[in-house]
Amino acid sequence: MRLEELIAALPGCRVRGRRDAEITGITLDSRTVRPGNLFAALPGRRGDGHDHAAEARGRGAAAILAQREVPNGGRMTVVLVEDSRAALAVLADRFWAAPSRELEVIGVTGTNGKTTVCYLTRDLLRAAGRRPALIGTIEYLVGARSIPAERTTPEAPMLQALMREAVLGGCDSLVMEVSSHALAQHRVDCVLFRVAVFTNLGGDHLDFHGGREEYLAAKASLFRSPSLAGAIVNADDGFAAAIADGIAAPVLTYGIAAAASLRATSIERTPRGSRFTIERGDERAAVDLPLLGLHNVMNALAAAGAAAAAGMGLPEAAAALSSARPVPGRLEEVAVGAAPFRVFIDYAHTAEALENALLAVRGVCRGRLIAVFGCGGDRDRSKRLPMGRVAARCADEAIITSDNPRGEDPAAIIEEIARGFAGTGGRADAIPDRREAIAAAIGRAGPGDVVLVAGKGHESTQEFANTVVPFSDRDVVRDLAARRGGASDGSDTGH
């Protein structure tokens, strides 16, 4: 596509240089520029893409999208706009020929539960004979291809490219997690959402947004999409009214405690999950959900609501939920052989999510509940003390360890979390090395006990100040359990 055709979508832009260049792709990373690419110079919290414009030109960039003059820009074709992030979304949509027009796009936003709701919704659509793609925190599933996720919601060029690939691969719908960062940074500006789902609003990302009101506003913006044909809102959440206010599309509420359009009643805990009745008006259907925890009942209701907005009947949705598969890293039980205890891993990294996970596994715990968790560095510090309080209240003992410390001192993060235990009578040990912390928990676990390793879930790396190292909670648990088993029964574990 020629540059002049591409920028026709930006009527207010100013162009310095040639307009007839052939644009072969769009990128915002100067290191990935290929000849003929448009390089989008974006301002960031830790760096500024404008400072890398010369590098992009040296790699063959045909043009630079910028919101201010770039260093040594006299020899470059520069497209100047007021907001390069907002303009990037428009250009990416145009370059990939507006693929969201050819998909039924379901967006899921909220602090907790997005991943599980997306996987459940994907499964429900599949059961209805649809061919959905999925974009989220764990992976991007497009047709038969699974791509490890770089971030929950990709930047606009990758997002639009994935949607175009989904269309070409025969997909008719897309279920995607929509993060508050993505909404605030215009990544999804041109996506035509047909259905939007709100799970809940808790304490997270306040370091980025600046406060709870700004965080809420970012989430609520998803529901202002003019293409929206249906909104699914958690009526039990305290921010439901603020989300629903001003939605032009029909709103379907769901919940357990509140009066909602879609409800779960007669809820019973089972060894493998929950059994309940899902109700909508005069319709009723039984669900035997193979996912632990009351929060997963809520996630199932959200998915059923999204599927209903996409045309699926309640009995069909209930049947599909009853055969749902566990989501990787979300209250995932890790096999520990013949050990007399159970171990679960979970992605919980907020106080609300940690509480949900601990209460869920408490239901299958016959002995002590041991929690291993930490908090990420260079992220919202306001959730550290509340996570300590939750662990003090909900676990029998806790081991506070490193999550992804990034540029912070792990011991300082642990100290902030530990303050949540003050005056509670709860027991917590500090073991900064995550593998050692997990080893300590498994070493202490006895018959009937449950160990919950929280914070990283599906992740396969751990981030430190200047390095990223391979680290999987799942693999570490398996290895340590095998070593313990070998020590106790004399079998050869190969270690």
Tag the structure with descriptive keywords:
495 residues; alpha/beta; Udp-n-acetylmuramoylalanyl-d-glutamate--2,6- Diaminopimelate Ligase, Chain: A, domain 1; UDP-N-acetylmuramoyl-L-alanine:D-glutamate ligase; Protein-Tyrosine Phosphatase, Chain A; 11-stranded mixed β-sheet; 6-stranded mixed β-sheet; 16 helices; globular; disordered C terminus
Q: Would you kindly provide a written description of the structure presented here, covering whatever features stand out?
A:
The protein has 495 residues and is an alpha/beta fold. It folds into three domains: 3-95, Udp-n-acetylmuramoylalanyl-d-glutamate--2,6- Diaminopimelate Ligase, Chain: A, domain 1 (3-Layer(aba) Sandwich); 99-321, Mur-like, catalytic domain (UDP-N-acetylmuramoyl-L-alanine:D-glutamate ligase); 332-489, Protein-Tyrosine Phosphatase, Chain A (Alpha-Beta Complex). It is 32% helix and 22% strand. The protein contains 16 helices and 24 strands. The strands form four sheets. Strands 9-8-7-10-6-11-12-13-14-15-16 form an eleven-stranded mixed beta sheet, with helices on both faces. The protein has a six-stranded mixed beta sheet with strand order 17-18-22-19-20-21, with helices on both faces. Strands 1-5-4-3-2 form a five-stranded mixed beta sheet. Helix 10 crosses helix 11 (314-321), helix 13 packs across helix 14 and helix 15 (434-444) packs across helix 16. The longest helix is centred in the last third of the chain and has 17 residues, at 473-489. The radius of gyration is 24 Å and the shape is globular. The chain starts with a helix and ends in a 6-residue tail after the last helix. Residues 486-495 have low confidence and may be disordered.
